[in-house]
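>> Question from a student workshop board

For tomorrow's exercise we were told to take the sequence and the ligand below, predict the bound structure, and bring the output to class. My setup keeps failing. Could a helper post the expected result so I can at least see what it should look like? The ligand is shikimate-3-phosphate.
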Amino acid sequence: MPLNNLSKINGTYLPPGDKSISHRILILSGQAIGKSEISNLLEAEDVINTLRAMKLMGVTIKKVLNKYHVFGLPPGGLFQPNQSIDFGNSGTGIRLLSGLIASNNIKVNLIGDSSLSKRPMRRVTEHLSKIGAVIELKKNIYPPIKIKGTGNSVPLNFNITIPSAQIKSAIMLSALNTNGRVKVKEFKSTRDHTENMLKSMGYNIKVKEDSKYRYIDMINDKQLKTIKYTVPGDPSSAAFLITAACLKPGSKLIVKNILLNKTRVGFLKTLKSMGGNIKITNRRKIHNENVADLKIAQNKSLNSTTLKSIDVPLQIDEIPILSIAASFAKGLSVFKGLKELTVKESNRLKLIHENLKKIGVKSKIQKFDLYIYGNHELKKGDAVIRHENDHRILMAFFIANMICEKNNIIKDKSCVKTSYPTFFKHISKLIN
Ligand code: S3P
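>> Workshop helper replied:
Here is what the output should look like for this input. Compare the format with yours to find the bug.
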């Protein structure tokens, strides 16, 4: 791949379908009786694993031309699967479906790959046990998750103390088959696609926010309606090319049909604060989600920034690529409060720091804060990148070739299939 320090980004770009929304629309349309239709579903491994899981539990899903037709079952109507369900690399898949399964009268063993098998699940299952599901974890923390769901789950008030959309969504999905009122209090910085989609499907849900928290109130007295849903472009995937364009003055990129939910595009604000020239055009709302086009016309080099821990959830998946931007920005950048990064597909905080050092960027970690000493000079590069098959670490350090004298060595690039199978194809179309 010819991406190197002479490369600029130019052209018009249609990012792939959003991963978080793709998981959720498969799950929620699978709980609406009748036929739903999904366009632009992200056909990446994580999402396909969720699709297979829904099929194994009795939902009929067919691909017809370029759309997915989903024939849902009523809440509580999941079938007993005849095998363990494998979620591969996907934390979202395993956690969200743990929630759905917890309030169905079925017994399921949920498994994953070696990375997923090291990720903490208690944060979700401690809530689900309270509704009456019987759950076992390896060493009380990790997958496999063995769930004996309950057909008679208890309606409760939940208070979530970790900012995590996966924890919240698992609880909300368990509420679909819970008689009575379920209330959730959580940090308002987490992504709210489950809430938005439930509203679009006619569910009885009320959402309020104050300066710090979100309060969700659900009553399952209304059936989910079927839906025709077009998945908007994924900002977390587009972030790689958008950041690449901002890194290199002279780049011009138009991004079409990108999800602009405020809980997802913190990185745009961060890039703008660094001098990224990003304009938002053609704003629209589709199924309670904001969607827009972007115009990036970069005419100067970036400056450093400081990210407060309260803003981290708004760009949690974009920290790896923002760390590349910070390396090529003038001055000290500080990303505060990155504890959650240590329990992602890899320990991202550690791998970012280690790989920055390898390519020739000075950085340090203090508690969970990351300090990056950036400048506009090319880094030495020529490093063997350690990615541990973490898709976002790999993609971030592939983009880092643009700020290095010599290209880095990245062995086995296949893990991009997790979230962005067309990553390399898109890059080769947009570089010059
Ligand atoms: C996701 C939530 C986030 C994010 C992940 C997708 C989701 O995880 O990092 O990539 O779709 O709900 P947490 O909820 O654990 O922060």
